[in-house]
Amino acid sequence: MHIYAFGSICRGEVDASSDIDMLAIVNGHDTRFNPSDYSIYSYARIRDLWEQGNAFAWHLFLESRLIYSPDNIDYLRSIGEPSIYKSGLADCEKFREIFLSAKESICSSDLTEIFDLSSIFLGVRNFATCFSLHCNTRPDFSRNSARNLGDQSIPIDDFTYSLYERARVLCTRGVGELLNSDEIDKAKIALSEVDSWMLDILNIIKRGIYERV
After folding, report:
1. Which distant-in-sequence residues (6+ apart) come within 8 Å of 130 by Cβ?
2. Is the separation of the CB atoms in 38 and 58 below 8 Å?
3. Of 81, 84, 146, 148, which one has the fewest beta carbons inside 10 Å?
4. Could you state, in order of their start, the residue ranges of all structural domains in the chain?
């Protein structure tokens, strides 16, 4: 059994809305770990992710911190660097589909607006993270990944971006100030611009302008 922390706490980006992401690597089923508190993986599955060059493998390799080891060995470091990340295009297309599904939902009904905005933030953030990992740049797994891409950063103002982030925190943490109708309308107005940005990024990947990590 090996236990790691990863995510915002390891990047020093903790705030009132942060949680603590924990990883437990175990052999077989281990009742000591609640799936609501831990990401639980077997050693075999971790090795599979490493061999695939999976984005989560790179996240763990670059940002995780060992909390417990029964043998004083950092298991994730001992298995070396993950394989080259090769699924940037497929992953970005997948997260754009999440964005598009939420965009369609919020534009057709006001019954699930906060949930839809939360899903939009999930799609945008992970889209940007995968792009940063795909490119020959510093991978960015933070909540601000879409705003940290230099010339390719998402072309919306910080306040609008914060609306999507607030919706995400409301849905995942159950804390924060509810968005009012004007804020929801502002967030919805920017969706076309967000979609155009995603299409531009996808074209950049397809044209091979950037080398992969």
Report:
1. 55, 87, 88, 91, 92, 95
2. no
3. 84
4. 2-78, 88-207
